[in-house]
């Protein structure tokens, strides 16, 4: 049977992880895959997570099945974290899913059940997994203008013009904060305009919220999501706990749906649970129980918020240091955008040949589109990195 197959393309981001690991140079720098790293270059287990795990180990009583919608306390805690008391909860449903990716997957399947073959509009560029997940669900993918390669900001007028031209059968995928891969984000005033556009056209907002708390803080990063969902009757949110809780390999996320009313929410949720049952039956518990334990306990929650803030502030400090080093060395403001971007990533706008040169000559690894993970910048080697970048673009 397998003779009918040809080799599938690999994931470029994950492949780069392997290439980096195989590079023997001790001076190599990993700005590739989007995982947070501390000063020592380690992706740590948060202390709040360790404590929650100790409690779970000591107090856990059963490993029986969790149920299709997952850990109920986790669901309630995530809704509190993301939505607060901004919405009438009778219109809102949540189902735990394996990571932000699993949440995207089940929600896109749900979109296709409601509107087979519907068009989902994604930013140009977007996270490379959006496309295959949407296509796999049966949807049609189109792009709206987003990144301005000149300013390294958002081409907002063009983006809004495209959104204004959509109709009620369209779906719009928005990065809630910390845009991947560009690092360029909407201002609050621009979110207001996007929300007004969606309210006017009736297009369905689908928010990918994979980095809540990694930009400017939990409340600041939720602005766009809350503004949009307050402005429209229906919306979808794919939440990930991979980055903000450092739980990458636990595969923990949540699919959230907001319907016109409670009756429609129940019907949509029954379809969502049916999709989950027909794919992996039900989610694993460990990551969900960790997040529930942290969010329900005032002390652990406070500790987590401090740890999240430390990760965020470190990324902002590295942004400032790198852009300042480049400014000082080159006497130009060309890379100041790195300090203005937020989240884990910045798209530098370099030619692929420059990216390849940096890898070969300097052992600096970034994604082929010139996306860097700022958390991977070694704090004591900012000058080396700035020198390498400036030499490579000469
Ligand atoms: N969406 C975006 C934009 C991402 O960058 C990621 C990154 O990993 C995800 C979703 C999903 O993450 P995960 O499935 O690891 O929770
Ligand atoms: O963009 C990133 O680097 C992260 C991690 O298939 C990631 O979102 C990358 C590729 C992938 C899954 C996760």
TrEMBL record:
SUPFAM superfamilies: PLP-dependent transferases. Residues 27-389 form the Aminotransferase class I/classII large domain. The keyword Transmembrane does not apply. GO terms for cellular component: cytosol. Keywords: Aminotransferase, Coiled coil, Pyridoxal phosphate, Transferase. Transmembrane segments: none annotated. GO terms for molecular function: identical protein binding; L-aspartate:2-oxoglutarate aminotransferase activity; L-tyrosine-2-oxoglutarate transaminase activity; pyridoxal phosphate binding. It comes from the Bacteria. Residues 301-328 form a coiled coil. GO terms for biological process: L-phenylalanine biosynthetic process from chorismate via phenylpyruvate. It holds the Pfam family Aminotran_1_2. Homodimer. NCBIfam families: PRK09257.1. PANTHER family: ASPARTATE AMINOTRANSFERASE, ASPARTATE AMINOTRANSFERASE, MITOCHONDRIAL. Belongs to the class-I pyridoxal-phosphate-dependent aminotransferase family. This is Aspartate/tyrosine/aromatic aminotransferase.
